[in-house]
């Protein structure tokens, strides 16, 4: 993997100043879009549908962890990266299908359906979505709101290969996690994943799994010793 110098994007960064209990407070925050994410369950093959992609921020954090000297320079143009960089795989994470809310003409549910088709290839009607909840994400930096949906899909609803939009630089791999492996997958720290994946799987076990046929339910969880 080849890295170039970092560049500070000041347009999206802001500084917040406040006086609280007589003490001056300073915070930096980043302007960003709200987003949607979708927990997708394929009822044909009883598996969760996730996406797997390279995240530069995750990679750079791992690079700094192994080579702290990389970020000790004030001007990143003077940064000298080590010859033996970490493999790109350390920056790959498992995530729920998700996307930013940047089209005011689309509802949150419509945005979610668009992302499901683009990233995972399933054509899901808006009426088939179930809203789970909304919450704040990145509260220390962005404070943006994310809305989580649940969608059940069938193999017959697969109309595209997915993988994201190449023209937008997306390179997404669609992966399937069998229902019986979901619990162990959630807590396997060797498989980097977002908190949304873990929360989504647990929500499923509490709200959907009890309604599944008995044969399926008995195979669903194998706790880690």
From TrEMBL:
GO CC terms in record: cytoplasm
Entry similarity comment: Belongs to the Nudix hydrolase family.
GO biological process assignments: nucleoside phosphate metabolic process; ribose phosphate metabolic process
Keywords, sorted A to Z: Cytoplasm, Hydrolase, Magnesium
GO molecular function: metal ion binding; UDP-sugar diphosphatase activity
Record-given protein name: Uridine diphosphate glucose pyrophosphatase NUDT14
Enzyme kind, highest EC tier: hydrolase
């Amino acid at each position: 993997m080849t890295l170039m110098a970092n560049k500070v994007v000041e347009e999206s960064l802001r500084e917040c100043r406040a006086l609280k209990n007589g003490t001056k407070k300073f915070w930096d925050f980043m302007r960003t879009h709200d987003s949607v994410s979708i927990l997708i369950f394929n009822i044909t093959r009883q598996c969760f549908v996730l996406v797997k992609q390279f995240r530069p921020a995750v990679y750079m954090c791992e690079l700094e962890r192994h080579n702290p000297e990389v970020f000790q320079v004030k001007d990143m143009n003077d940064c000298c990266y080590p010859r033996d960089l970490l493999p790109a795989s350390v920056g790959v994470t498992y995530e729920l299908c998700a996307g930013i809310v940047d089209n005011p003409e689309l509802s949150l549910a419509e945005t979610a359906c668009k992302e499901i088709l683009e990233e995972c290839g399933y054509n899901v009607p808006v009426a088939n979505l179930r809203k789970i909840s909304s919450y704040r994400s990145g509260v220390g930096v962005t404070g943006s709101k994310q809305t989580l949906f649940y969608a059940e899909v069938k193999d017959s609803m697969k109309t595209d290969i997915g993988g994201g939009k190449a023209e937008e630089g997306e390179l997404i791999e669609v992966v399937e996690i069998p229902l019986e492996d979901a619990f162990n997958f959630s807590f396997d720290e060797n498989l980097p994943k977002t908190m949304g994946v873990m929360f989504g799987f647990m929500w499923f076990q509490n709200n959907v799994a009890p309604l599944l046929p008995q044969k399926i339910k008995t195979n669903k969880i194998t706790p880690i010793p």
